[in-house]
Design goal:
The protein has 529 residues and is of the alpha+beta class. Helices cover 30% and strands 34% of the residues. The N and C termini lie far apart (157 Å).
Length: 529
C-alpha cells in the first residue's frame, strides 16, 4: 500500500529523503556565504528562510504525489467492485430470465373487484383492488406449464430494480403482450379467447376444475398471467354483465373458499338456496341439519363417520370491520345484503365460517355375574383411535368406593399410537367427557370371563380378540360390559382320579341290580293274570 511505502521512506527526523537531500545542499551553500560575508546576519536569515520554504514545497509535492496515487488505486478498486456488481446483476437477470420463460410455475388466483379488464394490462396494480380480501391470500393456486403457453403466446417483460443489484424481471402474458390475441370486438372477448384457448390449456384438468368449483362454470376469465415482485399470479374478472352481485365465503384462517355471483336484478343477487348448495359441496358430508337466523347459520352434518358443526356469520375482521354493517344474510327471505364496491357494477357480501367436531360423552359401565365372579376384581379397558393420539379428556366416575385403591385417573390420555386405558370393577361407571364423534375401538382385558356388551341398551356382538367398534354421535353413548363366570361342575379330568376297579365294580353292581328288578316284575305279572 502507498501509506506503508511512505512510512518506510521517512528519515530519523521524519522528513522524506528527497527533502533532506535538498536541505543539505542549501546548508552547505549557507556555510560558504558565512565565510565570505562574516558578520552578515541578515544574509544568513534570508538564506534560512529560503531553505525552509524549499523544504515545505518539496514535502507538499511529495505528499500530493502520494495522495494522488492512493486515490487512483481506490478509484480502481471501486471501479472493479462496481463492474463485479454489474456483472453479477447481469448474470442473475440472465438466470432469472431462463427460469421465467420455461418450466412449470405455481400461480395464485385473484379476482378484480371492479370487474373490468384494465385498459393497460401490463402494469402493477394495488392489492386492495383484488379479492379475496385484498390481503395477498389467493382463492387457490394452479400450475401453469410455460413451455406449452410459450407455443401460443408471446410474453412481454422488463426489469425492475429493487435496490442495489436486486433486479426482478416482470413478465406478462396478455393481449397487450401479443397483439395476435387482441383481435375481437371487445377487450373482454379478446381476453376470454386468450384465457380459454391458451392459458387454461396449459393447466391440468384438475386445476381447470378449481375455477368451476369456486366461481361456477365458465364464470372466471383470467386476463393476465404475470410475475411481479410477489411471484406469479393470475388476475381475472367474472363473465357477467353488470351489475354483478358476489357472495364470498372464508374459513377461519381467512382463506377464500368460494365466490358465487349473479346479475339477477329481480332478487337482487345470489339466492340463499344456491349458497347452501355451494357450502354443502365445499364441506362435503351428508345428513345436513340447519339452525337458521339472520346473520347466523349453524350447519350440523356427518363426514367420514364424524359429526361436525359449521357456523356462518358476516365477516367482521381485518379490513371488513368497516363493512360488517353492510354484510347480511337473510335465510327466511332467501337473499343477502351487499356493500357497494363499484357503483352500478360490483356489489359484495363476505361471510366467514368456523367448523368444529361435535363432542359427545362416552359412558362405560362394568358389571360381573356368576357364582365364580369376583366383584372386587378390576378390569382394564383399552380404547384405540389413531386420530386421537396425544389428546386428553376429563373422566368422572360413579359407584367408586371411598376405600378403593385402584387409582382411577381423572384424565384419559391417548398415547402416540392413539391408545388409552382405564380400569373399572363391578358397579363402577366412567364418563369420558366430550370425545370427538366418530368410531373408536374398545377392548376389555377380561381374563376367563364371558363378556356381553350393550350399546345404548341394545346387545351388540363382542370379540374377545378385537373387542367392539362403536360409533360416537352427537348424542351420548352408553356401554355396559357384563362379565359372566359361573362355578364349574366336576369335569372328566376329576373322575380320572377314582380307582379303575372302583369304577368297574360300580358299573357291575348297577347291571346286576337292573336284571334282578326286571325278573321280579315278570313274576308279579304272572301272578296277576
Amino acid at each position: 500500500m502507498q501509506l506503508s511505502a511512505f512510512a518506510e521512506s521517512q528519515s530519523a527526523e521524519g522528513i522524506p529523503e528527497a527533502v533532506t537531500s535538498g536541505s543539505g545542499q542549501l546548508q552547505e551553500q549557507s556555510g560558504k556565504t558565512e565565510e565570505r560575508s562574516a558578520g552578515s546576519g541578515q544574509t544568513q536569515k534570508e538564506q534560512t528562510a529560503e531553505n525552509k520554504q524549499t523544504m515545505t514545497e518539496e514535502r507538499s509535492a511529495s505528499n500530493e504525489q502520494i495522495k494522488n496515487e492512493e486515490q487512483k488505486e481506490k478509484n480502481g478498486q471501486e471501479t472493479t467492485e462496481d463492474q463485479s456488481v454489474a456483472e453479477k446483476s447481469a448474470a442473475d437477470r440472465s438466470e432469472q430470465q431462463e427460469r421465467a420463460v420455461s418450466g412449470k410455475i405455481e400461480a395464485k388466483v385473484y379476482l378484480r373487484y371492479s370487474n373490468e379488464v384494465p385498459s393497460a394490462i401490463n402494469n402493477a396494480f394495488a392489492m386492495g383492488e383484488f379479492g379475496p380480501s385484498g390481503n395477498d391470500k389467493p382463492y387457490f393456486t394452479v400450475t401453469v406449464d410455460l413451455d406449452e403457453l410459450n407455443k401460443k403466446v408471446n410474453s412481454y417483460s422488463y426489469w425492475q430494480d429493487y435496490g442495489r443489484g436486486n433486479w426482478v424481471e416482470y413478465i406478462y402474458y396478455s393481449i397487450d403482450s401479443d397483439a395476435r390475441w387482441n383481435q375481437q370486438n371487445t377487450r373482454l372477448e379478446s381476453v376470454t379467447k386468450l384465457w380459454r384457448e391458451a392459458i387454461t390449456s396449459a393447466m391440468s384438468a384438475a386445476d381447470q376444475a378449481k375455477f368451476t368449483n369456486v366461481f361456477g362454470e365458465n364464470m372466471f376469465v383470467g386476463y393476465v398471467l404475470k410475475r411481479e415482485g410477489s411471484g406469479w399470479h393470475i388476475d381475472g374478472v367474472l363473465a357477467e354483465d353488470p351489475p354483478v352481485y358476489v357472495v364470498e365465503l372464508y374459513d377461519a384462517e381467512n382463506n377464500g373458499l368460494f365466490a358465487i355471483s349473479s346479475n339477477d336484478t329481480k332478487l337482487p343477487g345470489v339466492t340463499y338456496r344456491e349458497f347452501k348448495r355451494k357450502a354443502e359441496e365445499i364441506l362435503g358430508g351428508q345428513n345436513y341439519q340447519y339452525e337458521e337466523g339472520n346473520d347466523h347459520i349453524i350447519m350440523t352434518y356427518q363426514k367420514d363417520g364424524v359429526t361436525y358443526q359449521t357456523e356462518i356469520v358476516p365477516k367482521s375482521d381485518g379490513a371488513d370491520a368497516s363493512y360488517v354493517k353492510n354484510y347480511h344474510v337473510y335465510p327466511a327471505q332467501g337473499k343477502f345484503a351487499y356493500r357497494t364496491v363499484t357503483a352500478d357494477t360490483y356489489y359484495l357480501c363476505r361471510l366467514k365460517m368456523t367448523t368444529r367436531q361435535v363432542g359427545t360423552d362416552l359412558w362405560i359401565e362394568k358389571k360381573v355375574a356368576g357364582g365364580a365372579a369376583d366383584p372386587k376384581e378390576h378390569f382394564t379397558f383399552v380404547l384405540t383411535k389413531t386420530s386421537l393420539a396425544g389428546t386428553s379428556y376429563s373422566v368422572s366416575y360413579e359407584g367408586i368406593a371411598e376405600n378403593d385403591g385402584a387409582g382411577h385417573q381423572e384424565t384419559l390420555t391417548f398415547d402416540g399410537n392413539g391408545v388409552a386405558r382405564l380400569s373399572l370393577k363391578n358397579g363402577e361407571k366412567a364418563r369420558i367427557l366430550q370425545m370427538p364423534s366418530g368410531d373408536v375401538q374398545i377392548k376389555e382385558e377380561n381374563g376367563d370371563y364371558v363378556t356381553k356388551v350393550t350399546v345404548n341398551g341394545i346387545s351388540e356382538k363382542y370379540s374377545d380378540a378385537s373387542g367392539i367398534k362403536i360409533q360416537l354421535s352427537s348424542e351420548k353413548t352408553e356401554l355396559v360390559f357384563t362379565n359372566q363366570l359361573d362355578a364349574q361342575p366336576p369335569t372328566g379330568a376329576e373322575l380320572l382320579s377314582v380307582p379303575y376297579w372302583l369304577m368297574g365294580g360300580t358299573a357291575l353292581a348297577g347291571l346286576l341290580g337292573s336284571r334282578i328288578t326286571g325278573r321280579r316284575r315278570k313274576d308279579r305279572k304272572k301272578k296277576f293274570f
